[in-house]
Design a protein that fits this description.
The chain is α/β, with parallel strands linked by helices. The longest helix is centred in the last third of the chain and has 18 residues. It has a 5-stranded mixed beta sheet with strand order 2-1-3-4-5, with helices on both faces.
């Protein structure tokens, strides 16, 4: 009954056609594609691929993104542009401070299991206002507090350490979020252990457009 219900849900949302298509590109190949795209971007040689009318028509039949980007909502960090990718290449989940929530988890699991994306990148960026607020602002209004509370552990872990507190917290926030996704049961943790997917962290540098992938 559960399987039947899942199929019904997928039909309703128009995703059934995507299930029959599996991505053949490996996590490492996906990562290399992102690195090459960012290199083109920072060198001013962006190819802006797969943005033509034919691609638009073909993608109406289904999508096969090769990577999932869990990024910040910051308007200065558009993933398709900084990685020089085209329509249908990246599955994007964005919140301020790239803070994950239940809906984010479900979206990522869907892109993994149903759409076949093999790489997940948690993408933070320099001068992140959400992280700065978690470090410096005692109180924030409305629902913003939910974002800040998720980033507080990174702020606390880096308090008193050498260097700029906000910068250190930005890196720590990405590391903690990568760890959370790798341990997220049942889907992501299982797929990481089985070697089916790779989850990595990265920092986008607003100053020059460079994406720094973390060890």
């Amino acid at each position: 009954m559960k399987i039947l219900y899942l199929l019904q849900v997928l039909i309703v949302f128009g995703f059934l056609s995507s299930m029959s298509k599996a991505q053949s590109i490996s996590p490492d190949e996906s990562l290399q594609r992102l690195k090459e795209g960012n290199k083109r971007f920072i060198e001013g040689k962006s190819a802006r691929p797969r943005q033509d009318p034919a691609t638009i028509r073909n993608l109406s039949k289904g999508q096969q993104p090769f990577a999932i980007i869990m990024g910040c909502s910051d308007s200065r960090v558009p993933s398709e542009i900084i990685f020089d990718q085209g329509l249908g290449d990246l599955f994007i989940v964005r919140t301020a401070g790239q803070v994950p929530a239940q809906a984010s988890f479900g979206s990522i699991e869907f892109a993994d299991r149903v759409l076949g994306a093999k790489l997940i990148v948690v993408l933070g960026h320099t001068s992140c206002g959400a992280v700065a607020a978690a470090v410096n602002v005692p109180e924030v209004p409305g629902h913003i507090v939910h974002l800040i509370n998720e980033i507080k552990p990174a702020a606390l872990n880096t308090k008193g350490k050498p260097g700029d507190h906000v910068t250190n917290a930005i890196y720590e926030n990405v590391r903690l979020q990568v760890q959370k996704l790798r341990e997220l049961e049942p889907v992501l943790a299982q797929d990481v252990k089985a070697g089916k997917i790779k989850i990595v962290g990265a920092i986008y540098h607003l100053e020059d457009g460079r994406v720094e992938f973390l060890p």
